[in-house]
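[stage:ingest] chain + small molecule (nicotinamide-adenine-dinucleotide)
[stage:ingest] validated
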Amino acid sequence: MQVNGQEVRKIMVTGGAGFIGSNFIRHVHERFPEIELLNYDKLTYAGNLENLEGVTGGYSFVQGDIQDAARVEDALAGVDVVVNFAAETHVDRSIHDPGDFILTDVYGVFVLLEAVKRNGRVKRFVHISTDEVYGSIARGRFSEESPLNPSSPYSASKAGGDRLAYSYFKTFALPVLIARPANNYGPYQFPEKLIPFFVTRALRDQPLPLYGDGSHCRDWLHVDDTVRGLLLLIERGEPGQAYNLGADQERSNREVTREILAILGKPESLVQAVADRKGHDFRYALDWAKMRALGWQPQVAFADGLRRTVEWYREHEGWWKKLVEKKAYVSHLRKNYE
Ligand code: NAD
Ligand code: DAU
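[stage:predict] done
[stage:export] tokens:
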């Protein structure tokens, strides 16, 4: 892999023990075995080194917080590209406890940017933002030029990190690129997000708490497609630009729930209508023509990706069972759903 005609030798992945970060590391490790990968992760409740089992050789791990300037500075030695996945990511948790979202998703991004500025040799800083920074859209799609109008403490923090990253391009000429992906799904996603949460509950015949009337819509992008898009951005993206990664695979939450139940052969009576999420965004939809122009388009059809994802959870009970049995997880469910 090359950037500006030079070989990429080392990539620092922050948040590499989480869902998308671990899929990114696995993919790069397989496709570019010559690239050294450094996973820098705090290991919050969402970080899990089991996501990276079997990844050895040319891979190392440092446990650290992106807010820790000295540790980040040390970790940056010899790094050519930084991909920042590290974040607090769950909207529901941001409603109950927003503090860590502001600290990691805004202040942590600032610490990383400052360290990259001082380091002076990083060729690309790819910051993972989200489609949620635009807020909800009733009809049509958001382009990268649409105003940011986030609704939750999570998306507001992500919008802060997104614009801070841009400001380091504009003010200090840091080679920053900003990715704004739609809802991701696939293996190794922590079982608090809609798809893994409902799959792991349906497998145990537990009720599926669907918010409101279930008509809220999300656009579902398989994590493999996201990873391919991010690699293209490293190689061909233009610094200072934001890029939407959408899938054109919009489904209401009720439709997704029905598809999961059908794959598992479980009854619809498991669905339980519960109070709506506070400030719940009704619909996200992206215009991703800029990514298409770079040569990217999603390859995984939702029906196939969902079936494979459900199978993955069915076959990896050992991975998720211990997560859902943890005290902190049980107390999150109690706080959020009771
Ligand atoms: P995740 O919650 O599965 O993983 C987050 C990782 O970051 C964990 O390994 C955690 O330990 C680590 N982390 C958290 N705080 C940290 C800190 N202060 N210092 C170092 N590490 C820290 O998240 P994900 O779903 O893989 O999302 C990755 C990124 O992609 C996030 O920035 C998220 O906002 C963004 N994103 C996610 C989606 C999605 O659907 N999952 C869609 C669009 C954008
Ligand atoms: O759009 C990108 C975003 O997607 C990412 O930036 C976030 O990190 C990621 O968590 C995700 O946010 P959402 O809020 O869209 O994802 P979540 O899986 O929490 O919810 C998806 C939809 O399902 C949403 O409309 C709320 C609904 N839902 C979710 C849960 C957990 C339910 O109805 N019941 C539930 O129990």
